[in-house]
Specification:
- Belongs to the LDH2/MDH2 oxidoreductase family.
- Its EC number is 1.1.1.37.
- Pfam families: Ldh_2.
- It is a single chain.
- The protein has eleven helices and eleven strands.
- By secondary structure, the protein is α+β, with helices and mostly antiparallel strands.
- The strands form three sheets. The chain has a seven-stranded mixed beta sheet with strand order 2-3-4-10-5-6-7.
- The longest helix is centred in the first third of the chain and has 19 residues.
- The termini are close together.
Length: 371
């Protein structure tokens, strides 16, 4: 077998699924968790893919701060809304079920919204928005997260990197899918930089002294010790309108916590006064809107497509050959990876081999191993 850092989709999906099962996640749920995790890699979002299998999900299950078995409890419901308690189960399973609930309500009543409490990290927000799009709906979702972003004029990491994510069906091959944090960068990207030995670009992270921080490994420690904070979208201070990112991160924090009366801001640090790891009961929200309840799905798709095409066809900046719309680059990455698989960096390769050996999954031989 020729050595390669690329693992085909079937192998990596089965492996990740089995690893979740070995950690106590029931079969069907393990399939959902693997699907959400690997969708990140399919779209080229390395920060939230297989990179995070061990450090986020397995380590948290092992530390007893996240339950492998998900108890999805609907605690309040109307025709168009619901509040769900996830009981610290698997965030991906909770997110999947909650968005499905919002979609069913939208299909029946035009709109549906589900607020979730006591959840855990749900991975890429775009997965859930895309679920709605695949059912012919507009999908909107957000989540709070452990404290990372400093408010404008502050240096304390207070807000999560809080993605605010929108998916829209169009008449094109791929949807409009705007899926990003409300900070310039997010923790997963800094983790990825640390894995591949890269500094974090200046302007994304500040220390308590207000000065830039760029050492990726150190930033991750400092975020936990409250000695670093991420800049909101727009950056530090008011000059490039960082208060807009700060404002949107706050919107996500409010919608994630206040509708379901859950924890927020520093209460989600996941670390107690003695430095011990504790659960971070996260909140999410999921909204589905059925364009059929307005002027019709086909009409919506057509107008949406026209807007996107007009944007892409507008005049390019000097030296630029192409204008993209949100979701397009991810679609292109998928097309380029579809037949091959996921590239795995050396640091993650070691983790996968170690997991395989520890869990007795000897039937998996990865293409990056020595023969
Ligand atoms: N669960 C959590 O707590 C959490 C928190 C933060 C982020 N995340 C996830 O992390 C992932 C990455 O977030 P990020 O902030 O690093 O995203 P990012 O900065 O890479 O931005 C990605 C978005 O920008 C669009 N985009 C990129 N280049 C573009 C261009 N030239 N023109 C038009 N659109 C363009 C992409 O299509 C995509 O929608 C997301 O999936 C997000 O949901 C999760
Ligand atoms: O890591 C987190 O706590 C949230 C998010 O996934 C991020 O990468 O910032």
């Amino acid at each position: 077998m020729k050595k390669s850092n690329i693992v085909d989709w079937k192998t990596i999906t089965e492996f990740v699924r089995e690893v979740f099962i070995k950690h106590g996640v029931p079969d069907e749920d393990a399939g959902i968790c693997a699907d959400v995790l690997l969708q990140a890699d399919k779209w080229g979002i390395e920060s939230h893919g297989v990179n995070r299998l061990k450090p986020i999900y397995l380590d948290r299950i092992k530390a007893g701060i996240q339950n492998p078995v998900t108890n999805f409890e609907v605690i309040k419901e109307t025709a168009t809304t619901a509040v769900v308690d996830g009981h610290l189960g698997m965030g991906q399973v909770i997110g999947y079920k909650a968005m499905n609930m919002a979609i069913s309500k939208a299909k029946e009543y035009g709109m549906g919204m589900v607020a979730v409490r006591n959840s855990t990290h749900y991975g890429i927000a775009g997965y859930y928005a895309a679920m709605a799009v695949n059912q012919g709906c507009i999908g909107i979702t957000g989540t709070n997260a452990r404290p990372s972003i400093a408010p404008t004029f502050g240096v304390e990491n207070m807000l999560g990197t809080n993605p605010l994510t929108f998916g829209m069906p169009t008449d094109e091959e791929f949807p409009f899918l705007l899926d990003c944090a409300t900070s310039i960068t997010q923790r997963g990207k800094i983790e990825y930089y640390a894995r591949i030995g890269k500094d974090t670009p200046e302007g994304m992270v500040i220390g308590r002294d207000g000065k830039a921080k760029t050492d990726s490994k150190q930033i991750l420690k400092d975020l936990d010790n409250q000695n670093a904070a991420l800049a909101p979208l727009g950056g530090i201070g008011e000059e490039l309108a960082g208060y807009k990112g700060y404002g949107y991160a706050t919107v996500v924090e409010i919608l994630s916590a206040a509708l379901q009366q859950g924890q927020f801001l520093r209460a989600l640090s996941g670390i107690d006064k003695e430095g011990k790891k504790i659960p971070m009961p996260l909140g999410h929200f999921f909204i589905a809107i059925d364009p059929e309840a307005f002027m019709g799905l086909e009409e919506f798709k057509k107008t949406c497509g026209e807007i996107l095409r007009e944007l892409r066809n507008s005049k390019k900046a000097p030296g630029q050959e192409r204008i993209y719309t949100a979701g397009e680059k991810e679609h292109l990455v998928w097309l380029s990876r579809k037949e091959s698989g996921v590239p795995i960096n050396e640091s993650v390769q070691k983790e996968l081999i170690q997991l395989r050996n520890e869990l007795g999954l000897s039937r998996y031989v990865f293409p990056f191993e020595e023969n």
